[in-house]
Amino acid sequence: MAGPASAAPVFVELAREDDAALRAELVRGLTAPAAHVAPKFLYGPLGSALFDAITRLAEYYPTRTEAAIFAAERDAIARACGRGRPLVDLGAADCAKAAALFDALQPSQYVAVDISVDYVRDALQRLQRCHPALPMLGVGMDFTAALELPPQVGPGPRTLFYPGSSIGNFMPEEALVLLRRVHAACAGGALLIGVDLVKPREVLEAAYADALGVTAAFDLNLLRNVNARLGADFDPRQWRHVAFFDARASRIEMHLEAREALTVRWPGGERRFAGGERIHTENSYKYRRGDFEAMLRDAGFGRTQGWTDARGWFAVFVAQAG
Predict the structure, then answer these.
(1) In the chain, how many domains are there?
(2) Cα–Cα distance between 241 and 260 in angstroms, integer?
(3) Would residue 2 count as lying in a domain?
Protein backbone atom coordinates (compact mmCIF):
# COMPACT_ATOMS: atom_id res chain seq x y z
CA MET A 1 0.00 0.00 0.00
CA ALA A 2 1.16 3.52 -0.69
CA GLY A 3 2.26 5.80 2.11
CA PRO A 4 4.91 5.87 4.79
CA ALA A 5 5.05 3.29 7.55
CA SER A 6 2.82 4.16 10.49
CA ALA A 7 3.13 2.55 13.91
CA ALA A 8 -0.25 3.74 15.15
CA PRO A 9 -3.32 5.58 13.86
CA VAL A 10 -3.78 9.28 14.56
CA PHE A 11 -6.99 10.55 16.20
CA VAL A 12 -8.69 13.92 15.89
CA GLU A 13 -11.78 14.68 17.93
CA LEU A 14 -13.88 17.42 16.32
CA ALA A 15 -17.07 16.75 18.24
CA ARG A 16 -18.13 14.75 21.26
CA GLU A 17 -21.67 13.95 22.27
CA ASP A 18 -23.25 16.70 24.37
CA ASP A 19 -25.22 14.97 27.14
CA ALA A 20 -27.39 17.99 27.91
CA ALA A 21 -28.26 18.49 24.25
CA LEU A 22 -29.10 14.80 23.84
CA ARG A 23 -31.38 14.86 26.89
CA ALA A 24 -33.13 17.94 25.52
CA GLU A 25 -33.56 16.20 22.16
CA LEU A 26 -35.12 13.19 23.86
CA VAL A 27 -37.56 15.33 25.83
CA ARG A 28 -38.64 17.18 22.67
CA GLY A 29 -39.27 13.92 20.88
CA LEU A 30 -41.12 12.21 23.73
CA THR A 31 -43.39 15.19 24.35
CA ALA A 32 -44.18 15.87 20.68
CA PRO A 33 -47.80 15.22 19.61
CA ALA A 34 -46.53 12.16 17.69
CA ALA A 35 -43.80 10.83 19.94
CA HIS A 36 -40.49 9.99 18.28
CA VAL A 37 -36.92 9.12 19.22
CA ALA A 38 -34.02 9.40 16.77
CA PRO A 39 -32.56 6.08 15.55
CA LYS A 40 -29.11 6.96 16.91
CA PHE A 41 -30.52 6.04 20.33
CA LEU A 42 -30.94 2.45 19.14
CA TYR A 43 -27.20 1.96 19.48
CA GLY A 44 -24.72 1.50 22.31
CA PRO A 45 -22.88 -1.67 23.36
CA LEU A 46 -25.96 -3.92 23.40
CA GLY A 47 -27.67 -2.20 20.48
CA SER A 48 -24.58 -2.54 18.30
CA ALA A 49 -24.30 -6.24 19.19
CA LEU A 50 -27.98 -6.78 18.39
CA PHE A 51 -27.64 -5.01 15.06
CA ASP A 52 -24.64 -7.20 14.22
CA ALA A 53 -26.86 -10.21 14.94
CA ILE A 54 -29.58 -8.77 12.68
CA THR A 55 -27.14 -8.61 9.76
CA ARG A 56 -26.67 -12.38 10.09
CA LEU A 57 -30.38 -13.24 9.94
CA ALA A 58 -31.84 -14.98 6.91
CA GLU A 59 -34.49 -12.27 6.55
CA TYR A 60 -32.04 -9.36 6.60
CA TYR A 61 -30.72 -9.24 3.04
CA PRO A 62 -29.00 -5.77 2.82
CA THR A 63 -25.62 -6.57 4.41
CA ARG A 64 -24.88 -9.77 2.54
CA THR A 65 -26.33 -8.45 -0.74
CA GLU A 66 -24.17 -5.33 -0.64
CA ALA A 67 -21.10 -7.43 0.26
CA ALA A 68 -21.79 -9.71 -2.71
CA ILE A 69 -21.92 -6.72 -5.07
CA PHE A 70 -18.62 -5.41 -3.70
CA ALA A 71 -17.04 -8.84 -4.16
CA ALA A 72 -18.37 -9.35 -7.69
CA GLU A 73 -17.65 -5.84 -8.96
CA ARG A 74 -14.58 -4.90 -6.94
CA ASP A 75 -12.34 -4.17 -9.93
CA ALA A 76 -14.96 -2.10 -11.76
CA ILE A 77 -15.73 -0.21 -8.57
CA ALA A 78 -12.03 0.47 -8.00
CA ARG A 79 -11.60 1.79 -11.55
CA ALA A 80 -14.61 4.07 -11.10
CA CYS A 81 -13.43 5.38 -7.73
CA GLY A 82 -9.77 5.75 -8.68
CA ARG A 83 -7.04 3.88 -6.84
CA GLY A 84 -4.48 5.39 -4.51
CA ARG A 85 -6.69 8.10 -3.00
CA PRO A 86 -7.59 8.85 0.62
CA LEU A 87 -10.56 6.68 1.60
CA VAL A 88 -12.94 8.49 3.98
CA ASP A 89 -15.32 6.07 5.70
CA LEU A 90 -18.47 7.80 6.98
CA GLY A 91 -19.95 6.09 10.04
CA ALA A 92 -17.02 3.68 10.09
CA ALA A 93 -18.04 1.71 13.21
CA ASP A 94 -15.84 -1.43 13.17
CA CYS A 95 -14.20 -0.41 9.83
CA ALA A 96 -14.80 -3.90 8.41
CA LYS A 97 -16.59 -2.90 5.19
CA ALA A 98 -13.88 -0.45 4.19
CA ALA A 99 -11.10 -2.87 5.10
CA ALA A 100 -12.56 -5.45 2.71
CA LEU A 101 -11.94 -2.97 -0.14
CA PHE A 102 -8.34 -2.03 0.70
CA ASP A 103 -6.82 -4.47 -1.78
CA ALA A 104 -8.99 -3.16 -4.62
CA LEU A 105 -8.88 0.57 -3.83
CA GLN A 106 -5.25 0.70 -2.61
CA PRO A 107 -5.92 3.83 -0.56
CA SER A 108 -3.12 6.26 0.22
CA GLN A 109 -4.77 6.93 3.60
CA TYR A 110 -7.72 5.49 5.52
CA VAL A 111 -9.90 7.98 7.42
CA ALA A 112 -12.51 6.52 9.79
CA VAL A 113 -15.23 9.04 10.71
CA ASP A 114 -17.64 8.23 13.54
CA ILE A 115 -19.36 10.04 16.40
CA SER A 116 -18.46 7.17 18.73
CA VAL A 117 -14.83 8.14 19.33
CA ASP A 118 -13.94 5.33 21.72
CA TYR A 119 -15.50 2.64 19.53
CA VAL A 120 -13.75 3.72 16.35
CA ARG A 121 -10.44 4.16 18.21
CA ASP A 122 -10.46 0.51 19.26
CA ALA A 123 -11.43 -0.67 15.78
CA LEU A 124 -8.79 1.44 14.07
CA GLN A 125 -6.04 0.28 16.40
CA ARG A 126 -6.87 -3.34 15.57
CA LEU A 127 -6.98 -2.58 11.85
CA GLN A 128 -3.65 -0.75 11.91
CA ARG A 129 -1.91 -3.91 13.12
CA CYS A 130 -3.14 -5.70 9.98
CA HIS A 131 -2.08 -2.84 7.68
CA PRO A 132 0.99 -1.28 9.34
CA ALA A 133 2.11 0.65 6.23
CA LEU A 134 -1.25 2.35 5.57
CA PRO A 135 -1.60 5.76 7.27
CA MET A 136 -4.80 5.79 9.31
CA LEU A 137 -6.72 8.68 10.83
CA GLY A 138 -9.68 8.50 13.18
CA VAL A 139 -12.03 11.50 13.24
CA GLY A 140 -14.59 11.91 16.02
CA MET A 141 -17.39 13.87 14.35
CA ASP A 142 -21.13 13.87 13.70
CA PHE A 143 -20.85 14.10 9.92
CA THR A 144 -24.64 14.30 9.57
CA ALA A 145 -24.52 17.75 11.20
CA ALA A 146 -21.36 19.07 9.53
CA LEU A 147 -18.69 17.57 7.28
CA GLU A 148 -15.56 19.67 7.55
CA LEU A 149 -12.69 17.22 7.36
CA PRO A 150 -9.53 18.12 9.32
CA PRO A 151 -6.30 19.15 7.55
CA GLN A 152 -4.75 15.78 8.40
CA VAL A 153 -6.84 14.25 5.61
CA GLY A 154 -4.74 13.87 2.50
CA PRO A 155 -5.11 16.53 -0.23
CA GLY A 156 -6.51 16.06 -3.70
CA PRO A 157 -9.33 13.83 -4.89
CA ARG A 158 -10.82 11.58 -2.20
CA THR A 159 -13.18 8.61 -2.18
CA LEU A 160 -15.94 9.03 0.39
CA PHE A 161 -17.50 5.72 1.43
CA TYR A 162 -21.05 5.47 2.79
CA PRO A 163 -22.19 1.84 2.72
CA GLY A 164 -25.00 -0.13 4.29
CA SER A 165 -27.95 1.88 2.89
CA SER A 166 -27.60 4.25 5.86
CA ILE A 167 -28.68 7.08 3.56
CA GLY A 168 -32.16 5.55 3.83
CA ASN A 169 -32.45 6.60 7.48
CA PHE A 170 -32.82 10.24 6.37
CA MET A 171 -35.90 11.84 4.90
CA PRO A 172 -35.23 12.55 1.19
CA GLU A 173 -34.75 16.28 1.74
CA GLU A 174 -32.32 15.55 4.59
CA ALA A 175 -30.51 12.98 2.44
CA LEU A 176 -30.05 15.60 -0.30
CA VAL A 177 -28.50 18.06 2.17
CA LEU A 178 -26.10 15.37 3.39
CA LEU A 179 -25.15 14.36 -0.15
CA ARG A 180 -24.33 17.98 -0.96
CA ARG A 181 -21.98 18.08 2.04
CA VAL A 182 -20.40 14.83 0.88
CA HIS A 183 -19.94 16.25 -2.63
CA ALA A 184 -18.01 19.21 -1.23
CA ALA A 185 -15.83 16.92 0.89
CA CYS A 186 -14.87 14.69 -2.05
CA ALA A 187 -12.49 17.40 -3.33
CA GLY A 188 -13.02 16.36 -6.93
CA GLY A 189 -13.02 12.63 -6.17
CA ALA A 190 -15.96 10.27 -5.88
CA LEU A 191 -18.65 8.89 -3.59
CA LEU A 192 -19.06 5.13 -3.13
CA ILE A 193 -22.48 4.47 -1.60
CA GLY A 194 -24.84 1.57 -0.95
CA VAL A 195 -28.60 2.04 -1.43
CA ASP A 196 -31.51 -0.28 -0.67
CA LEU A 197 -34.04 -0.58 -3.49
CA VAL A 198 -37.81 -1.01 -3.59
CA LYS A 199 -38.86 -4.66 -3.56
CA PRO A 200 -41.87 -6.78 -2.57
CA ARG A 201 -43.53 -5.72 0.68
CA GLU A 202 -43.22 -9.17 2.23
CA VAL A 203 -39.44 -9.17 1.75
CA LEU A 204 -39.06 -5.68 3.21
CA GLU A 205 -41.27 -6.24 6.23
CA ALA A 206 -39.66 -9.58 7.11
CA ALA A 207 -36.24 -7.88 7.13
CA TYR A 208 -37.43 -5.54 9.90
CA ALA A 209 -39.60 -8.00 11.85
CA ASP A 210 -37.70 -11.28 11.82
CA ALA A 211 -39.11 -14.55 13.11
CA LEU A 212 -36.60 -14.82 15.99
CA GLY A 213 -37.46 -11.35 17.30
CA VAL A 214 -33.92 -10.00 17.14
CA THR A 215 -35.07 -6.77 15.49
CA ALA A 216 -37.76 -6.43 18.14
CA ALA A 217 -35.11 -6.74 20.85
CA PHE A 218 -32.99 -4.14 19.02
CA ASP A 219 -35.92 -1.71 18.91
CA LEU A 220 -36.98 -2.33 22.52
CA ASN A 221 -33.41 -1.81 23.71
CA LEU A 222 -33.86 1.83 22.68
CA LEU A 223 -36.05 2.22 25.78
CA ARG A 224 -33.20 1.08 28.02
CA ASN A 225 -30.91 3.58 26.30
CA VAL A 226 -33.45 6.35 26.88
CA ASN A 227 -33.73 5.36 30.55
CA ALA A 228 -29.95 5.55 30.95
CA ARG A 229 -29.63 8.86 29.11
CA LEU A 230 -32.71 10.64 30.48
CA GLY A 231 -33.37 8.92 33.81
CA ALA A 232 -36.75 7.73 32.51
CA ASP A 233 -38.66 4.67 33.74
CA PHE A 234 -39.66 2.93 30.52
CA ASP A 235 -40.47 -0.77 31.06
CA PRO A 236 -39.77 -2.61 27.77
CA ARG A 237 -42.27 -5.31 28.77
CA GLN A 238 -45.05 -2.75 28.28
CA TRP A 239 -44.15 -2.18 24.64
CA ARG A 240 -44.14 -4.12 21.37
CA HIS A 241 -42.11 -3.68 18.18
CA VAL A 242 -44.05 -2.74 15.02
CA ALA A 243 -42.57 -2.47 11.53
CA PHE A 244 -44.35 -1.92 8.22
CA PHE A 245 -43.74 -0.64 4.70
CA ASP A 246 -45.42 2.64 3.78
CA ALA A 247 -45.61 2.31 -0.02
CA ARG A 248 -46.70 5.92 -0.50
CA ALA A 249 -43.60 7.26 1.28
CA SER A 250 -41.47 4.33 0.04
CA ARG A 251 -40.12 3.62 3.49
CA ILE A 252 -40.06 1.04 6.24
CA GLU A 253 -41.20 2.53 9.54
CA MET A 254 -40.24 1.12 12.94
CA HIS A 255 -42.32 1.98 16.00
CA LEU A 256 -42.70 0.92 19.60
CA GLU A 257 -46.35 0.50 20.55
CA ALA A 258 -47.73 0.70 24.09
CA ARG A 259 -49.46 -2.55 25.06
CA GLU A 260 -51.71 -0.67 27.49
CA ALA A 261 -52.31 2.84 28.83
CA LEU A 262 -49.26 3.94 30.83
CA THR A 263 -47.25 6.91 32.03
CA VAL A 264 -43.51 7.31 31.58
CA ARG A 265 -41.68 9.69 33.93
CA TRP A 266 -38.26 11.31 33.95
CA PRO A 267 -36.76 14.10 36.09
CA GLY A 268 -38.81 17.19 35.35
CA GLY A 269 -41.37 15.60 33.04
CA GLU A 270 -43.66 12.79 32.02
CA ARG A 271 -45.71 11.50 29.08
CA ARG A 272 -48.97 9.59 29.18
CA PHE A 273 -49.42 7.02 26.42
CA ALA A 274 -52.73 5.46 25.46
CA GLY A 275 -52.86 1.76 24.69
CA GLY A 276 -51.80 1.35 21.06
CA GLU A 277 -50.02 4.72 20.94
CA ARG A 278 -46.62 4.58 19.28
CA ILE A 279 -43.13 6.03 19.46
CA HIS A 280 -41.60 6.34 15.98
CA THR A 281 -38.00 5.06 16.18
CA GLU A 282 -36.68 4.69 12.62
CA ASN A 283 -37.36 5.18 8.93
CA SER A 284 -35.59 3.30 6.17
CA TYR A 285 -36.33 4.74 2.75
CA LYS A 286 -36.19 2.44 -0.26
CA TYR A 287 -35.28 3.97 -3.62
CA ARG A 288 -35.77 3.19 -7.26
CA ARG A 289 -32.46 3.29 -9.04
CA GLY A 290 -33.35 6.19 -11.33
CA ASP A 291 -34.71 8.25 -8.46
CA PHE A 292 -31.50 7.92 -6.46
CA GLU A 293 -29.37 8.75 -9.49
CA ALA A 294 -31.46 11.92 -9.90
CA MET A 295 -30.81 12.80 -6.24
CA LEU A 296 -27.07 12.40 -6.81
CA ARG A 297 -27.29 14.81 -9.75
CA ASP A 298 -29.26 17.27 -7.63
CA ALA A 299 -26.48 17.06 -5.03
CA GLY A 300 -23.93 18.15 -7.63
CA PHE A 301 -22.43 14.82 -8.67
CA GLY A 302 -21.64 14.15 -12.31
CA ARG A 303 -21.24 10.80 -14.04
CA THR A 304 -22.64 7.92 -11.99
CA GLN A 305 -22.07 4.19 -12.37
CA GLY A 306 -24.16 1.61 -10.56
CA TRP A 307 -24.29 -2.11 -9.93
CA THR A 308 -27.06 -4.29 -8.51
CA ASP A 309 -27.47 -7.90 -7.49
CA ALA A 310 -29.28 -10.28 -9.85
CA ARG A 311 -32.65 -9.69 -8.16
CA GLY A 312 -32.29 -5.91 -8.21
CA TRP A 313 -32.72 -5.68 -4.43
CA PHE A 314 -29.73 -3.48 -3.63
CA ALA A 315 -27.50 -1.05 -5.52
CA VAL A 316 -23.96 0.28 -5.18
CA PHE A 317 -23.15 3.58 -6.89
CA VAL A 318 -19.95 5.45 -7.66
CA ALA A 319 -20.73 9.12 -8.30
CA GLN A 320 -18.06 11.47 -9.60
CA ALA A 321 -17.60 14.80 -7.81
CA GLY A 322 -15.06 16.18 -10.25
Answers:
(1) 2
(2) 14
(3) no
